[in-house]
Amino acid sequence: MRLFVWMFALGVTGAVVALVLGALRAERRPPTLPRVEAEGAARRVISSDGVTLEFARPPRLILPTNASVVDLLDALVGPERIAALPEQAFRWSRLARDRAGYEKHPVFAQYEAETVLDLAPDLVIASAFNNPDTHARLRERGVAVLRLDVRNSLDDVMKALRMLGSLLGVEERAETVCAEIEARRERLCADAADLDGITAVSYSNVGSGGWSFGADSTIDEVFRLAGLRNAAARGGRTGSITMSFEQLVDLDPDLVVMGGDEGQSTSAEVLRGEAALDGLRARRRDAFVILPPELASTSSQEMLTAAEFLVGEVRRLREAGRIERRPGDGR
């Protein structure tokens, strides 16, 4: 799977931020969704990295290598068909809120060939930022590894759900999940209609420089779903971008969105303590939104949950007088 995440939320260590941003830079080509052909029980799928996998019947036991894949599989098949969980799933996926059914599941810390071989899955679903050497070693040992790359949009997440539904033999379940997503999106669009014109910027700074995300990013999609405008996308900026204090003040968004735990964020502390940001409207009004890790890093259908959370927070800030809609402000 392509690195879906807009992990500005990882305001925990500079090393993690550097890892994520490095992976983002490594992916310059548009992602290609795997293609599935079904004939009776047999399945043939072309992985995002071009490798063809063939199954006499839909693979039963699946190993996800990251939190976003966990979200997809949990919606489609549930715990009984998931061989084990990456340990980050309990922080970065929906399981951070509800781990029912997974309390006794095996957990692995690193995506390594030996670990995967011991778990003996029928299928591994991996991502572009997982180690390709591990993919190769597992394939050499006869393990089916599907690399799943998805664009940064809810529409492409639904395409991925339908593709996995076909591959795993749960087509009807995939259609039900996608219909539920569509219904939630329609409700959210109606609910957020009056927020159009409010500008937002995602921001991460753990003391070594600021980062944001422009267009073609999952935060841009979350903002769009929430009826907000991504100020960092001005001028055609895309993907991960550096964000100096001066640039942030120049954008002067209505609110700044950051990641953190239990309402606490290292990035927010940096913004509150920096004298150069005295002119930043969002700081003067304390118009900061802190997203929990599982929403701040999501690149699955949980983008919709993040947008719903964000709409609620924006309404709270507006009712408190910390965000104002200025007539005619087309920023």
Can you characterise this structure?
This protein is of the alpha/beta class and 331 residues long. It is built from 13 helices and 14 strands. It has helices at 14-26, 67-76, 89-92, 113-119, 132-140, 154-168, 171-191, 218-225, 245-251, 266-273, 281-284, 293-296, 302-319; strands at residues 35-39, 42-46, 52-55, 62-64, 85-86, 107-108, 123-126, 145-147, 199-202, 211-213, 229-230, 240-242, 255-259, 288-291. The strands form five sheets. The protein has a four-stranded parallel beta sheet. It has a three-stranded antiparallel beta sheet with strand order 1-2-3, with helices on one face. A three-stranded parallel beta sheet has the order 4-7-8. Helix 6 runs antiparallel to helix 7, helix 7 packs parallel to helix 13 and helix 8 crosses helix 13. The longest helix is centred in the middle third of the chain and has 21 residues, at 171-191. The radius of gyration is 20 Å and the shape is elongated. The protein starts with 13 loop residues before the first helix and ends in a 12-residue tail after the last helix. 47% of the residues are buried. Mean pLDDT is 89; it is low at 1-27 and 327-331.
